Amino acid sequence: MTVPPPLSLADHSLGLAIHTATGQLGLALQRGENPVAQQTWPLDRELLNQLHNCLGDFLPSQQWSELDYLAVAQGPGSFTSVRIGMVTARTLAQQLQIPLFTISTLACFAQSLVKTCGDGELLAVTMPATRGYFYGALYQIVGEKLITLDGDRLWLPEDWQQLMADKGVKQIHATPDQLGITAPQLLTLAWQHWLLGDRPHWSAAQPFYGMSPTDPVAN
């Protein structure tokens, strides 16, 4: 297990997060470690039509050139909503020629719970899928940082319960229906990667659509 280095307080990078994975649009802006602004919109079926207007209202046109990086929620979530966010983020990162970080939807939610956990505590989160499966991920809190032990994957209930028993996890956190509210946490996780020196090219950004009803399940 790799523990991230201490965060740098001297960083003044400007990052923008775009979270669309559940149909609730969440945008967040951060300068270094300091939140600048955040906002959510319950767009759902209007996400495609309204996303660019919301971006324009949230970030004045003269500030786009100041961005150092972008972050986008890669899923799991709604296929259409994830795709809209990913295409938008890739297009913007390409035009601005800045790095694009893709962050798990489950990790964003888990990050929102970090301050309620103790050092070394295990944090398990789940999201509904289809055909009796669900998405699950297991993290550990180390120095108020989120460490991935078992990333996003499909689980059957009995297999997940066995993992929880083996790891001694007593509490499991289910994601709410709307996750655009975790855009600030999306940005926090991206910023941590930024501080480590990661500069992912926009073309490497790929969505995690998860499972469709016709997909085979591989363990």
Q: Strands of the biggest beta sheet: in what spatial order?
A: 3-2-1-4-5
CATH H-tier superfamily of the largest domain: ATPase, nucleotide binding domain
Helix content: 25-40%
> Main β-sheet: number of strands, strand sense, barrel status?
5 strands, mixed
How do you describe this structure in short?
The protein is of the alpha/beta class.
Structure description:
By secondary structure, the chain is α/β, with parallel strands linked by helices. The protein folds into 2 domains: 14-104 and 178-204, ATPase, nucleotide binding domain (Nucleotidyltransferase, domain 5), CATH 3.30.420.40; 107-174, Nucleotidyltransferase, domain 5. It is built from 5 helices and 9 strands, in the order βββαβαβαβββαβα. The strands form 2 sheets. It has a 5-stranded mixed beta sheet, sandwiched between helices. A 4-stranded mixed beta sheet has the order 8-7-6-9, with helices on both faces. α3 crosses α5 (183-195). The longest helix is centred in the middle third of the chain and has 18 residues, at 79-96. The relative contact order is 0.22. Residues 1-5 and 213-219 have low confidence and may be disordered. InterPro entries: ATPase_NBD (IPR043129), Gcp-like_dom (IPR000905), T6A_TsaB (IPR022496). This is Sll1063 protein. One of its GO terms (biological process) is tRNA threonylcarbamoyladenosine modification. Residues 63-171 form the Gcp-like domain. Pfam families: TsaD (PF00814).
